[in-house]
Amino acid sequence: MTILLDVHGYTKHFTVHHLGRNIPTFSEVSFTLREGEFLLVRGQNGAGKSTLLRCLYRTYLPTSGAALYHSHLGSVDLARAADVDIALLRRHEIGFVTQFLRPRPRVSALEWVAEPLLTDGMAYNQAREFAEAMLSDFGIKRDLWGAYPSTFSGGEQQRVNVARALILPRRLLLLDEPTASLDASARAALTRRLTALKAQGVTLIGIFHYPDEIRSLVDSEIDLQSEALPDVAD
Amino acid sequence: MAISSPPFAPIDNPFDPPRLSDTTPLLRADGLVKRYGRIAAVDDVSLDVYAGEVVGIVGESGSGKSSVLRLLNLEELPNAGTYTLDLPDYTGVNLFALDRFARREVTARQIGIVYQNPHLGLRMRYTSSGNVAERLLVTGERAYATLRQAARESLSASEFPLNRMDDPPRVLSGGMQQRVQLAKAIALRPRILLLDEPTTGLDVSVQAAVLDTLKRLQRELRLAMVLVSHDLGVIRTLADRVLVMRGGRVIERGLTDQVLDDPQHAYTQQLVHAKL
Fold first, then answer.
1. Predicted complex ipTM
2. Which residues numbered 109-168 in A keep a CB inside 8 Å of some CB on B?
3. Which domains does chain A have, with CATH numbers?
4. Residue B70: inside a domain, yes or no?
Protein backbone atom coordinates (compact mmCIF):
# COMPACT_ATOMS: atom_id res chain seq x y z
CA MET A 1 0.00 0.00 0.00
CA THR A 2 1.18 3.51 -0.70
CA ILE A 3 2.47 5.80 2.00
CA LEU A 4 0.03 8.57 2.87
CA LEU A 5 1.77 10.36 5.71
CA ASP A 6 5.37 10.55 6.80
CA VAL A 7 5.93 12.42 10.06
CA HIS A 8 9.47 13.20 11.11
CA GLY A 9 10.75 14.92 14.26
CA TYR A 10 7.40 16.60 15.00
CA THR A 11 7.71 18.86 18.06
CA LYS A 12 5.43 21.41 19.65
CA HIS A 13 6.17 24.05 22.28
CA PHE A 14 3.67 26.71 23.22
CA THR A 15 5.11 30.17 23.71
CA VAL A 16 3.04 32.11 26.24
CA HIS A 17 4.17 35.71 25.93
CA HIS A 18 2.58 37.19 29.05
CA LEU A 19 4.22 34.49 31.18
CA GLY A 20 7.44 34.72 29.21
CA ARG A 21 7.52 30.94 29.04
CA ASN A 22 7.83 28.02 26.70
CA ILE A 23 5.58 25.08 27.47
CA PRO A 24 6.75 21.87 25.81
CA THR A 25 4.30 19.13 24.79
CA PHE A 26 5.35 16.24 22.58
CA SER A 27 8.80 16.18 21.08
CA GLU A 28 10.54 14.46 18.15
CA VAL A 29 7.56 12.34 17.11
CA SER A 30 8.12 10.26 13.98
CA PHE A 31 5.93 7.68 12.23
CA THR A 32 4.89 6.54 8.78
CA LEU A 33 1.35 5.59 7.78
CA ARG A 34 0.19 3.76 4.71
CA GLU A 35 -3.29 4.07 3.23
CA GLY A 36 -5.89 2.23 5.27
CA GLU A 37 -3.76 1.99 8.41
CA PHE A 38 -4.96 2.89 11.90
CA LEU A 39 -2.53 4.53 14.33
CA LEU A 40 -3.54 4.62 17.99
CA VAL A 41 -2.05 7.53 19.95
CA ARG A 42 -1.56 6.74 23.62
CA GLY A 43 -0.24 8.65 26.61
CA GLN A 44 -1.32 10.12 29.93
CA ASN A 45 -3.27 13.33 30.30
CA GLY A 46 -1.06 16.21 29.28
CA ALA A 47 1.29 14.10 27.19
CA GLY A 48 0.19 16.04 24.11
CA LYS A 49 -2.06 13.54 22.32
CA SER A 50 -4.68 16.10 21.23
CA THR A 51 -1.93 18.60 20.55
CA LEU A 52 -0.31 16.16 18.12
CA LEU A 53 -3.58 15.73 16.19
CA ARG A 54 -4.12 19.48 16.11
CA CYS A 55 -0.59 20.02 14.85
CA LEU A 56 -1.33 17.63 11.97
CA TYR A 57 -4.63 19.43 11.21
CA ARG A 58 -2.76 22.74 11.64
CA THR A 59 -5.11 24.12 14.26
CA TYR A 60 -1.79 24.39 16.10
CA LEU A 61 1.48 25.29 14.43
CA PRO A 62 4.18 22.70 15.08
CA THR A 63 7.44 24.18 16.37
CA SER A 64 9.65 21.94 14.28
CA GLY A 65 9.59 18.77 12.24
CA ALA A 66 7.81 17.80 9.05
CA ALA A 67 4.66 15.90 8.13
CA LEU A 68 4.81 14.97 4.47
CA TYR A 69 1.28 14.28 3.26
CA HIS A 70 0.73 12.76 -0.18
CA SER A 71 -2.52 14.26 -1.38
CA HIS A 72 -4.25 13.43 -4.65
CA LEU A 73 -3.16 16.87 -5.83
CA GLY A 74 0.50 16.61 -4.85
CA SER A 75 2.69 16.30 -1.76
CA VAL A 76 2.93 18.97 0.93
CA ASP A 77 4.45 19.33 4.37
CA LEU A 78 1.49 19.89 6.71
CA ALA A 79 3.78 21.89 9.02
CA ARG A 80 4.66 24.44 6.35
CA ALA A 81 1.98 24.28 3.64
CA ALA A 82 0.22 27.51 2.68
CA ASP A 83 -2.98 28.22 4.59
CA VAL A 84 -5.05 27.94 1.42
CA ASP A 85 -3.59 24.48 0.74
CA ILE A 86 -4.44 23.32 4.25
CA ALA A 87 -7.96 24.75 3.84
CA LEU A 88 -8.29 22.83 0.58
CA LEU A 89 -7.13 19.56 2.20
CA ARG A 90 -9.60 20.09 5.04
CA ARG A 91 -12.42 20.47 2.52
CA HIS A 92 -11.53 17.37 0.54
CA GLU A 93 -9.11 14.97 2.22
CA ILE A 94 -8.40 15.48 5.93
CA GLY A 95 -11.14 15.34 8.56
CA PHE A 96 -11.07 15.98 12.29
CA VAL A 97 -13.48 14.43 14.77
CA THR A 98 -13.47 16.21 18.10
CA GLN A 99 -15.02 15.32 21.41
CA PHE A 100 -17.07 18.50 21.47
CA LEU A 101 -19.94 19.78 19.38
CA ARG A 102 -19.67 23.43 18.47
CA PRO A 103 -22.97 24.10 16.69
CA ARG A 104 -24.02 27.42 15.26
CA PRO A 105 -27.17 28.70 16.94
CA ARG A 106 -30.40 28.30 14.94
CA VAL A 107 -29.06 25.47 12.78
CA SER A 108 -30.97 22.18 13.01
CA ALA A 109 -29.27 18.84 13.57
CA LEU A 110 -30.11 17.79 10.02
CA GLU A 111 -28.71 20.97 8.46
CA TRP A 112 -25.63 20.76 10.67
CA VAL A 113 -24.85 17.23 9.53
CA ALA A 114 -25.64 17.98 5.87
CA GLU A 115 -23.57 21.17 5.72
CA PRO A 116 -20.19 19.62 4.78
CA LEU A 117 -21.89 17.94 1.78
CA LEU A 118 -23.48 21.23 0.69
CA THR A 119 -20.13 23.00 1.01
CA ASP A 120 -18.66 20.23 -1.13
CA GLY A 121 -21.22 21.05 -3.83
CA MET A 122 -23.88 18.35 -3.36
CA ALA A 123 -27.50 19.22 -4.21
CA TYR A 124 -29.73 19.93 -1.21
CA ASN A 125 -32.10 16.97 -1.49
CA GLN A 126 -29.32 14.45 -1.88
CA ALA A 127 -27.33 15.95 1.00
CA ARG A 128 -30.47 15.76 3.12
CA GLU A 129 -30.90 12.06 2.38
CA PHE A 130 -27.29 11.29 3.31
CA ALA A 131 -27.61 13.33 6.49
CA GLU A 132 -30.81 11.53 7.48
CA ALA A 133 -29.10 8.18 6.96
CA MET A 134 -26.15 9.27 9.13
CA LEU A 135 -28.39 10.57 11.91
CA SER A 136 -30.37 7.35 12.04
CA ASP A 137 -27.13 5.29 11.91
CA PHE A 138 -26.00 7.09 15.02
CA GLY A 139 -29.35 6.60 16.73
CA ILE A 140 -30.68 10.16 16.73
CA LYS A 141 -34.47 9.97 16.90
CA ARG A 142 -36.31 11.34 13.87
CA ASP A 143 -38.24 13.93 15.86
CA LEU A 144 -34.92 15.54 16.89
CA TRP A 145 -33.64 16.04 13.33
CA GLY A 146 -35.26 19.45 12.97
CA ALA A 147 -34.30 20.62 16.48
CA TYR A 148 -31.25 22.65 17.48
CA PRO A 149 -28.39 20.46 18.79
CA SER A 150 -27.55 23.04 21.47
CA THR A 151 -30.66 21.78 23.30
CA PHE A 152 -29.57 18.11 23.15
CA SER A 153 -28.04 15.99 25.90
CA GLY A 154 -24.26 15.54 25.90
CA GLY A 155 -24.46 12.08 24.36
CA GLU A 156 -26.87 13.19 21.63
CA GLN A 157 -24.68 16.19 20.85
CA GLN A 158 -21.69 13.93 20.42
CA ARG A 159 -23.62 11.62 18.07
CA VAL A 160 -24.52 14.63 15.93
CA ASN A 161 -20.91 15.82 16.05
CA VAL A 162 -19.56 12.46 14.90
CA ALA A 163 -22.23 12.13 12.20
CA ARG A 164 -21.19 15.49 10.74
CA ALA A 165 -17.50 14.77 10.99
CA LEU A 166 -17.78 11.43 9.20
CA ILE A 167 -20.27 12.31 6.48
CA LEU A 168 -17.76 13.35 3.82
CA PRO A 169 -15.40 10.80 2.32
CA ARG A 170 -11.89 11.46 3.66
CA ARG A 171 -8.46 9.99 3.07
CA LEU A 172 -7.14 10.83 6.53
CA LEU A 173 -9.26 11.07 9.67
CA LEU A 174 -7.97 12.47 12.95
CA LEU A 175 -10.07 11.23 15.87
CA ASP A 176 -9.73 13.04 19.19
CA GLU A 177 -11.54 10.87 21.74
CA PRO A 178 -14.72 10.68 19.66
CA THR A 179 -16.23 8.15 22.07
CA ALA A 180 -15.69 10.19 25.24
CA SER A 181 -19.36 10.94 25.94
CA LEU A 182 -21.01 8.16 23.91
CA ASP A 183 -22.96 5.27 25.41
CA ALA A 184 -22.25 1.66 24.44
CA SER A 185 -24.67 1.55 21.50
CA ALA A 186 -23.33 4.75 19.95
CA ARG A 187 -19.77 3.54 20.48
CA ALA A 188 -20.68 0.34 18.65
CA ALA A 189 -22.14 2.40 15.78
CA LEU A 190 -18.93 4.41 15.59
CA THR A 191 -16.77 1.27 15.61
CA ARG A 192 -18.85 -0.19 12.75
CA ARG A 193 -18.42 3.03 10.82
CA LEU A 194 -14.66 3.17 11.40
CA THR A 195 -14.32 -0.47 10.38
CA ALA A 196 -16.10 0.27 7.10
CA LEU A 197 -13.99 3.38 6.48
CA LYS A 198 -10.76 1.52 7.12
CA ALA A 199 -11.86 -1.20 4.71
CA GLN A 200 -12.39 1.53 2.09
CA GLY A 201 -8.77 2.59 2.57
CA VAL A 202 -9.27 5.55 4.87
CA THR A 203 -6.23 6.20 7.08
CA LEU A 204 -6.99 6.88 10.74
CA ILE A 205 -5.09 8.44 13.62
CA GLY A 206 -6.99 8.30 16.88
CA ILE A 207 -7.04 8.88 20.61
CA PHE A 208 -9.53 6.57 22.31
CA HIS A 209 -10.90 6.52 25.78
CA TYR A 210 -11.83 2.85 25.43
CA PRO A 211 -9.11 1.47 23.14
CA ASP A 212 -10.29 -2.11 23.63
CA GLU A 213 -13.34 -1.48 21.47
CA ILE A 214 -11.27 -0.53 18.46
CA ARG A 215 -8.27 -2.76 19.23
CA SER A 216 -8.90 -5.01 16.23
CA LEU A 217 -8.61 -2.01 13.89
CA VAL A 218 -5.26 -0.82 15.22
CA ASP A 219 -2.18 -1.43 13.07
CA SER A 220 0.34 0.52 15.13
CA GLU A 221 0.60 2.53 18.33
CA ILE A 222 2.59 5.49 19.48
CA ASP A 223 3.10 6.24 23.17
CA LEU A 224 3.75 9.90 23.81
CA GLN A 225 5.02 9.50 27.38
CA SER A 226 8.15 7.87 26.17
CA GLU A 227 8.51 10.51 23.46
CA ALA A 228 7.84 13.72 25.33
CA LEU A 229 10.00 15.46 27.88
CA PRO A 230 7.95 15.27 31.08
CA ASP A 231 9.48 18.25 32.89
CA VAL A 232 8.41 21.80 32.11
CA ALA A 233 11.44 23.70 30.91
CA ASP A 234 11.71 27.40 31.40
CA MET B 1 13.86 32.34 28.76
CA ALA B 2 12.65 35.82 27.98
CA ILE B 3 10.14 35.82 25.17
CA SER B 4 8.67 38.98 23.88
CA SER B 5 7.95 40.34 20.45
CA PRO B 6 7.97 44.03 19.64
CA PRO B 7 4.34 45.15 19.80
CA PHE B 8 3.95 46.13 16.16
CA ALA B 9 6.40 43.79 14.46
CA PRO B 10 4.53 41.22 12.37
CA ILE B 11 4.92 37.49 12.88
CA ASP B 12 6.21 36.07 9.66
CA ASN B 13 5.48 32.36 9.45
CA PRO B 14 7.73 30.72 6.90
CA PHE B 15 4.98 28.94 4.98
CA ASP B 16 5.48 27.48 1.53
CA PRO B 17 3.73 29.16 -1.40
CA PRO B 18 0.43 27.49 -2.41
CA ARG B 19 1.10 24.21 -4.24
CA LEU B 20 -2.25 22.43 -4.33
CA SER B 21 -4.52 25.43 -4.87
CA ASP B 22 -3.60 26.21 -8.44
CA THR B 23 -6.15 28.91 -9.16
CA THR B 24 -5.14 32.53 -8.86
CA PRO B 25 -6.91 34.46 -6.11
CA LEU B 26 -10.06 36.27 -7.15
CA LEU B 27 -9.04 39.35 -5.21
CA ARG B 28 -5.48 40.48 -4.69
CA ALA B 29 -4.43 43.63 -2.85
CA ASP B 30 -0.76 44.35 -2.51
CA GLY B 31 1.17 46.87 -0.43
CA LEU B 32 -1.79 49.07 0.52
CA VAL B 33 -0.86 52.30 2.29
CA LYS B 34 -3.38 54.95 3.34
CA ARG B 35 -2.30 58.03 5.24
CA TYR B 36 -4.49 60.62 6.91
CA GLY B 37 -2.12 63.50 7.55
CA ARG B 38 0.89 62.00 9.30
CA ILE B 39 -0.97 58.91 10.48
CA ALA B 40 -0.69 55.76 8.37
CA ALA B 41 -4.11 54.17 8.96
CA VAL B 42 -3.13 51.35 6.60
CA ASP B 43 0.55 50.54 6.46
CA ASP B 44 1.68 48.03 3.84
CA VAL B 45 -1.26 45.61 3.94
CA SER B 46 -1.52 42.78 1.43
CA LEU B 47 -4.22 40.16 1.10
CA ASP B 48 -5.45 37.49 -1.31
CA VAL B 49 -8.97 36.09 -1.33
CA TYR B 50 -9.94 33.04 -3.37
CA ALA B 51 -13.42 32.42 -4.80
CA GLY B 52 -15.68 30.80 -2.24
CA GLU B 53 -13.45 31.83 0.65
CA VAL B 54 -14.08 34.10 3.65
CA VAL B 55 -11.13 36.10 4.94
CA GLY B 56 -11.65 37.84 8.27
CA ILE B 57 -9.87 40.95 9.53
CA VAL B 58 -9.76 41.42 13.30
CA GLY B 59 -8.31 44.14 15.44
CA GLU B 60 -9.31 46.80 17.91
CA SER B 61 -10.87 50.15 17.00
CA GLY B 62 -8.34 52.22 15.10
CA SER B 63 -6.33 49.22 13.89
CA GLY B 64 -7.09 50.14 10.29
CA LYS B 65 -9.40 47.24 9.48
CA SER B 66 -12.31 49.37 8.28
CA SER B 67 -9.92 51.57 6.28
CA VAL B 68 -8.78 48.47 4.40
CA LEU B 69 -12.41 47.68 3.59
CA ARG B 70 -13.03 51.21 2.28
CA LEU B 71 -10.02 50.84 -0.03
CA LEU B 72 -11.31 47.48 -1.28
CA ASN B 73 -14.70 49.09 -1.93
CA LEU B 74 -12.90 51.86 -3.88
CA GLU B 75 -14.49 54.48 -1.66
CA GLU B 76 -11.05 55.94 -1.16
CA LEU B 77 -7.77 55.71 -3.04
CA PRO B 78 -4.57 54.65 -1.28
CA ASN B 79 -1.25 56.46 -1.17
CA ALA B 80 0.37 53.28 -2.47
CA GLY B 81 -0.61 49.78 -3.48
CA THR B 82 -2.34 47.78 -6.17
CA TYR B 83 -5.69 46.03 -6.31
CA THR B 84 -6.64 43.46 -8.94
CA LEU B 85 -9.59 41.15 -9.55
CA ASP B 86 -9.18 37.98 -11.57
CA LEU B 87 -12.27 38.61 -13.71
CA PRO B 88 -12.58 38.56 -17.53
CA ASP B 89 -12.56 42.32 -18.17
CA TYR B 90 -10.16 43.18 -15.39
CA THR B 91 -7.26 40.73 -15.53
CA GLY B 92 -4.06 42.59 -14.66
CA VAL B 93 -5.85 45.93 -14.22
CA ASN B 94 -4.99 47.93 -11.11
CA LEU B 95 -8.45 49.12 -10.03
CA PHE B 96 -6.97 52.12 -8.21
CA ALA B 97 -5.63 53.38 -11.54
CA LEU B 98 -9.06 53.41 -13.23
CA ASP B 99 -10.97 56.66 -13.66
CA ARG B 100 -13.90 57.51 -11.44
CA PHE B 101 -16.55 56.14 -13.81
CA ALA B 102 -14.76 52.86 -14.41
CA ARG B 103 -14.26 52.43 -10.66
CA ARG B 104 -17.96 52.96 -10.10
CA GLU B 105 -18.74 50.37 -12.73
CA VAL B 106 -16.55 47.78 -10.96
CA THR B 107 -18.01 48.43 -7.53
CA ALA B 108 -21.57 48.39 -8.83
CA ARG B 109 -21.22 45.09 -10.66
CA GLN B 110 -18.54 43.11 -8.85
CA ILE B 111 -18.41 44.32 -5.25
CA GLY B 112 -21.21 44.35 -2.69
CA ILE B 113 -20.88 45.83 0.78
CA VAL B 114 -22.77 45.64 4.07
CA TYR B 115 -21.99 48.26 6.69
CA GLN B 116 -22.51 48.05 10.43
CA ASN B 117 -24.47 51.29 10.21
CA PRO B 118 -27.40 50.81 7.80
CA HIS B 119 -27.56 54.58 7.24
CA LEU B 120 -24.33 54.28 5.25
CA GLY B 121 -25.73 51.67 2.91
CA LEU B 122 -29.43 52.51 2.64
CA ARG B 123 -31.78 55.40 1.97
CA MET B 124 -33.83 55.11 5.11
CA ARG B 125 -36.98 56.78 3.73
CA TYR B 126 -37.20 54.96 0.39
CA THR B 127 -38.95 51.60 0.22
CA SER B 128 -36.77 48.58 0.94
CA SER B 129 -37.53 47.16 -2.50
CA GLY B 130 -36.55 50.51 -4.04
CA ASN B 131 -33.24 50.45 -2.19
CA VAL B 132 -32.44 47.07 -3.71
CA ALA B 133 -33.75 47.92 -7.20
CA GLU B 134 -31.64 51.08 -7.24
CA ARG B 135 -28.61 48.87 -7.65
CA LEU B 136 -29.94 47.70 -11.04
CA LEU B 137 -30.40 51.23 -12.34
CA VAL B 138 -26.61 51.40 -12.74
CA THR B 139 -26.87 48.70 -15.38
CA GLY B 140 -29.39 50.74 -17.35
CA GLU B 141 -32.37 48.61 -16.38
CA ARG B 142 -35.51 50.78 -16.30
CA ALA B 143 -38.45 48.36 -16.69
CA TYR B 144 -40.49 48.52 -13.49
CA ALA B 145 -41.53 44.85 -13.56
CA THR B 146 -37.93 43.67 -14.01
CA LEU B 147 -36.64 45.92 -11.23
CA ARG B 148 -39.34 44.75 -8.88
CA GLN B 149 -38.79 41.11 -9.68
CA ALA B 150 -35.02 41.48 -9.12
CA ALA B 151 -35.64 43.22 -5.79
CA ARG B 152 -38.03 40.46 -4.77
CA GLU B 153 -35.48 37.74 -5.64
CA SER B 154 -32.62 39.39 -3.78
CA LEU B 155 -34.72 40.17 -0.72
CA SER B 156 -35.96 36.61 -0.71
CA ALA B 157 -32.38 35.27 -1.01
CA SER B 158 -31.39 37.31 2.01
CA GLU B 159 -34.43 35.92 3.87
CA PHE B 160 -36.22 39.23 4.19
CA PRO B 161 -40.00 38.92 4.78
CA LEU B 162 -41.48 39.90 1.41
CA ASN B 163 -44.72 41.24 2.90
CA ARG B 164 -42.58 44.12 4.19
CA MET B 165 -40.62 44.81 1.01
CA ASP B 166 -42.27 48.19 0.51
CA ASP B 167 -41.65 49.41 4.04
CA PRO B 168 -38.82 51.92 4.34
CA PRO B 169 -35.74 50.71 6.30
CA ARG B 170 -36.29 53.35 9.00
CA VAL B 171 -39.34 51.44 10.32
CA LEU B 172 -37.57 48.06 10.26
CA SER B 173 -35.65 46.28 13.02
CA GLY B 174 -31.85 46.26 12.94
CA GLY B 175 -31.72 42.66 11.73
CA MET B 176 -34.12 43.38 8.88
CA GLN B 177 -32.19 46.50 7.88
CA GLN B 178 -29.08 44.33 7.56
CA ARG B 179 -31.03 41.92 5.35
CA VAL B 180 -32.03 44.84 3.07
CA GLN B 181 -28.38 45.90 2.87
CA LEU B 182 -27.43 42.34 2.05
CA ALA B 183 -30.12 42.09 -0.66
CA LYS B 184 -28.87 45.33 -2.17
CA ALA B 185 -25.27 44.10 -2.02
CA ILE B 186 -26.04 40.87 -3.91
CA ALA B 187 -28.62 42.33 -6.33
CA LEU B 188 -26.19 42.27 -9.27
CA ARG B 189 -24.66 38.95 -8.22
CA PRO B 190 -21.19 40.35 -7.47
CA ARG B 191 -18.20 38.06 -6.94
CA ILE B 192 -16.92 40.01 -3.92
CA LEU B 193 -18.85 40.76 -0.74
CA LEU B 194 -17.36 43.12 1.86
CA LEU B 195 -18.81 43.05 5.37
CA ASP B 196 -18.00 45.71 7.95
CA GLU B 197 -19.19 44.49 11.38
CA PRO B 198 -22.40 43.20 9.75
CA THR B 199 -23.99 41.85 12.93
CA THR B 200 -22.55 44.15 15.59
CA GLY B 201 -25.30 45.65 17.70
CA LEU B 202 -27.90 43.02 16.83
CA ASP B 203 -29.55 40.76 19.43
CA VAL B 204 -27.71 37.47 19.80
CA SER B 205 -30.54 35.43 18.25
CA VAL B 206 -30.92 37.85 15.34
CA GLN B 207 -27.16 37.83 14.88
CA ALA B 208 -27.16 34.03 14.63
CA ALA B 209 -29.88 34.10 11.97
CA VAL B 210 -28.09 36.76 9.90
CA LEU B 211 -24.79 34.84 10.15
CA ASP B 212 -26.57 31.74 8.92
CA THR B 213 -27.93 33.63 5.91
CA LEU B 214 -24.44 34.93 5.13
CA LYS B 215 -23.00 31.43 5.34
CA ARG B 216 -25.63 30.07 2.96
CA LEU B 217 -25.24 32.90 0.43
CA GLN B 218 -21.49 32.60 0.50
CA ARG B 219 -21.77 28.90 -0.29
CA GLU B 220 -24.48 29.22 -2.94
CA LEU B 221 -23.03 32.21 -4.79
CA ARG B 222 -19.37 31.18 -4.28
CA LEU B 223 -18.63 34.70 -3.09
CA ALA B 224 -15.20 35.82 -2.02
CA MET B 225 -15.91 37.57 1.28
CA VAL B 226 -13.85 39.94 3.37
CA LEU B 227 -15.33 40.21 6.86
CA VAL B 228 -14.20 42.91 9.27
CA SER B 229 -15.20 42.33 12.88
CA HIS B 230 -13.93 42.76 16.38
CA ASP B 231 -16.19 39.85 17.43
CA LEU B 232 -14.05 36.72 17.44
CA GLY B 233 -17.15 34.51 17.63
CA VAL B 234 -18.41 35.94 14.34
CA ILE B 235 -14.97 35.48 12.80
CA ARG B 236 -14.76 31.87 13.98
CA THR B 237 -18.21 31.13 12.58
CA LEU B 238 -17.64 32.57 9.11
CA ALA B 239 -13.98 33.04 8.26
CA ASP B 240 -11.65 30.45 6.72
CA ARG B 241 -8.59 32.59 7.25
CA VAL B 242 -7.94 35.66 9.32
CA LEU B 243 -5.63 38.67 9.43
CA VAL B 244 -4.88 40.39 12.73
CA MET B 245 -4.33 44.14 12.38
CA ARG B 246 -2.71 46.54 14.77
CA GLY B 247 -1.58 50.10 14.13
CA GLY B 248 -2.37 49.81 10.41
CA ARG B 249 -0.28 46.68 9.91
CA VAL B 250 -1.06 42.99 9.62
CA ILE B 251 0.81 41.48 12.56
CA GLU B 252 -0.37 37.89 12.15
CA ARG B 253 -2.27 35.85 9.60
CA GLY B 254 -3.35 32.25 9.32
CA LEU B 255 -6.19 29.72 9.33
CA THR B 256 -8.91 31.03 11.63
CA ASP B 257 -8.76 28.17 14.13
CA GLN B 258 -4.96 28.37 14.23
CA VAL B 259 -4.86 32.11 14.88
CA LEU B 260 -7.56 31.88 17.55
CA ASP B 261 -6.38 28.64 19.22
CA ASP B 262 -2.61 28.94 18.83
CA PRO B 263 -1.87 32.63 18.33
CA GLN B 264 1.82 33.35 17.86
CA HIS B 265 2.02 37.09 18.40
CA ALA B 266 1.95 38.50 21.93
CA TYR B 267 -0.76 40.96 20.88
CA THR B 268 -2.95 38.26 19.31
CA GLN B 269 -2.61 36.18 22.48
CA GLN B 270 -3.93 39.12 24.49
CA LEU B 271 -6.74 39.74 22.02
CA VAL B 272 -7.86 36.11 22.05
CA HIS B 273 -7.67 35.79 25.82
CA ALA B 274 -9.55 39.04 26.34
CA LYS B 275 -12.66 37.34 24.98
CA LEU B 276 -15.26 36.70 27.67
1. 0.89
2. 118-119
3. 1-93+171-178+203-234 (3.40.50.300)
4. yes
